[in-house]
């Protein structure tokens, strides 16, 4: 059970918008606080949108063009190599949700830059999908700015070492280790290592000279250019997951340029730059336990995978694993087909650990079906649109591809020993930390044969007396950025405060907490930090439980002001449609 610590927070009961609707597992009069997704997940705006980024000429000044309905887009020209700024250039794709408050108003508070994580995540995609909710939280006084970091998505040059989408798809379809458990078979780990050798060779052979400049150091410098292009010197920023590494890097490099600065879902930057990746999973098993314990507490009506004890649920999971190891299940849907095997189940579970409110109910139903021999629901949780060769070539330049993750992580991190036995040793060490090492190890393996570029970029130390204190946010049970990391990183930034959210999931927006998001808003608007040691609750659970809790949550929501209900609706939508990945390939 997650610890419920009372916080000195006057907003203790603020969260979660109430919609009375029948629970999908309800009987009789049971009512569910609507933490299930009320609408289909928004699709990415990239290839299908008629807006063409090529109509915008990169410029050192921000020239905004209408795009994606009511938003504006720009391409900022920046140096490819900041040590030689007069040579080649890069172009950073940006999207803006304009403040409701006019820019000439004294109440206008400037832009807030958003990074969704990754490495490899697209800020443009995040804003087209979730920008309205982010804007509601931060407030109408601010512009919300998403950007694709250099090498990623619509920014150019882009990290890519395949000659075509087809070549990338064919290679990925031949046993992509990022979709496999390293425990799936005896040769899973050595195959992942061998594939990384090929990918490292491709990266070196097909590099046009730009690859070495795709790193966090240069992206931090790009962020400063974005701020300066707005005529400002101090940044306002909210970075999630890998965005915490980018944020810690920026704050350490440019401590005098900090205005309002939040890092949310905080990774250990020292461990990241050391290319170790071995302390990220400290709390991952705790999140998985929250699924099991939550299912037990919810009962048969609230969790279709219910058993009376956690031990019995674990035993059912072991049976599912053993069955799929022996014989995968073929699935044919109306849009695609494939096999549900051990690796797919492990990957789907691990993705669900990021977003309990969005995924735990569906996961429980999929397991119940799977126990009965029906794998369709589980397959749909991992289903991807079918690959189409007949594709506008320009669309390829809009996609965030896995090579971008490789480029940032491998360029940033220390060189790792390329020998297979060293990979085995690292995997064994990581396995001692968490049972989820089998889906996390491939991130580091990708760097075993990376080209040996000079490593002159910033890699610490992460110590700074920033011009304004930083706010760090961590969950009590985060699968890949444990709360411990937030406290460690806070020690290096004078005056910073860690705000704890008492929930399972990745980053604060994976759980519905008005308490947390009101602190976020107060920090951006007023510069107010929570008291050290503050713990924010969430309302509701991923599973419906008993009538007493539902009634209590209902009364809490009904007591909210109209403004707080509007805030909760944004928080609820984020939690139940949460899709941040760390890194993008998982």
TrEMBL record:
UniProt GO molecular function: hydrolase activity
InterPro entries tied to this protein: AB_hydrolase_1, AB_hydrolase_fold, Pept_S33_TAP-like_C, Serine_prot/Carboxylest_S33
Pfam families assigned to the protein according to its UniProt record, in alphabetical order: Abhydrolase_1, Abhydrolase_4
Domain AB hydrolase-1: start-end pairs: 111-299
Keywords of the record: Hydrolase, Signal
Keyword Transmembrane helix annotated: no
All residue ranges annotated as the Peptidase S33 tripeptidyl aminopeptidase-like C-terminal domain in the record: 436-536
Signal sequence, start to end: 1-28
Family: Belongs to the peptidase S33 family.
Protein name according to UniProt: TAP-like protein-domain-containing protein
Organism listed in the record: Mycena rosella (Pink bonnet)
